[in-house]
Design goal:
It contains five helices and 48 strands.
Amino acid sequence: MKPIPLLLALTAQRTTAACLSSATSTTINTLLTTGGPNTLISLCPDTIVPLTSPIIFTAPGQEISTAGYPTDSTRATLLIQPGTDTTSAIRGNWQDYVRVRNLQIDGNRPKAGALGGDALLEMGGGTTGQWVEGNVIRDTRSWSCFHLIASGQEGNLCRNATVKGNTVGPCGEEGVGVEGGLWADGLSVECTESVVVDNEITGATDGGIVIFGSPGSSFLRNTITSSSTQRGFGGINMVDPNYNGNYSGVVVSDNTIIGVDSGFIELGIAMGSQVWSNPHPLNNFGPTTVSNNVFKGNIGFSIVINGWEGGLTVQNNDISAVSPPSDFADPSTCGSIQKSAFLASHPLLIYPPGAGSPLTIQPEFTTLSANASNFLCLTHPLPTSQSFTAGSLSVSAATSTVVDLKGLHVQLQGDGNLVGLDTTGTNQGGSEVKWASGRYSDGCGTDGSGCVLAFDEAGELKLTDGTGKTVWGSGTKGKEVVFLGEEPWVVVKEADGQQLWTVGELA
């Protein structure tokens, strides 16, 4: 008798259970442990399950889902509770053919807080045939909303997983907290010969889909949209050295990457070991295909390739709807090569020595003039002016930076000279002095801390040094000082907006 494939056997043996209208992680875990293989945990629609610990699959073929597999807001919710150290709602590692379907999985970051730990949904390991479909996965407390983890075992890889039709995000936020970066991935995939298809990822602040090697896997028809207000580092990333940099057989096709409103995505598709902020010494390798992807709106660089070998085909990707990057981002902190590409609005970039062969790319690519790494250098647009009320500005030459404006960096130098430096990148790397106070002091000290620029309570903008001497002052009783990206550069004003003094009067 011909043996029945395991997947079919597990599917056939799965029994229908009455749905649970209330549950906790403890009761669900008890049912999974006692039920054994093929146990189905069916939650009634609109059920909310408060979690103080993860739900853990314990045997092959188990499933947790909402009864009837709804696709709307009636899907049952797994909700991590505040006051716990739990970051994962479900752990499906190391169990074949387990399924997570039609749930709302909520990390509850706004109330429970950000916390280092495992992803909100942890699947994978040395398994085959896992299935994650039709879920809402949002607000992870940790580094990723969903992690399909590798096994670390050559003879027992994570393989043949399906991630389909999920709605993911928001995931993380911009900035740094007490435990480090607050950003998070949407989907983090380390599984081989797998399919990630028809998912919608919105508001991932690290990578929308991060491909950690995953040889033989396909990433198809996914839509990745930025937060409406925050920066996302990448849309689809192929930059990490997992599987020793092996991306052979990976297909990234028919995806849509969109930056919206005041949010943006720095890198649409990042390819190679030299593109991200932490370059690796060895190249990633293919052959890999990236085709028929669509880029729209606020994307800093649509595709960047550097640190690749072993075959690459990049064809028929549509960049026609990408916005001019200077409309939504600022390159002031970028290196000169990255800044030049940004200012020239070159969305497709390649460094040929870092791309290897065979290589087939579409004609719109711009060749980088030198080996440039780290394209994660864009910030939100800087203001064209910044104002301070009386008593609210005090900066020493040790701190240096007074304000950063669009195209202009204002700093107090170690000799007491207040200067405005061009940062547009059009003048020898952006170092041209646009204006300067032209007043100096020998009393700033070796670290510059003796010289202080302040707009004092009386409404005077002045520079004092370590001896207590006033090097210069505006002689005003103003209400605010305004730093501008154009002449007259620095202005002290009265409450009604009347101009009392400009920095040009020091000349």
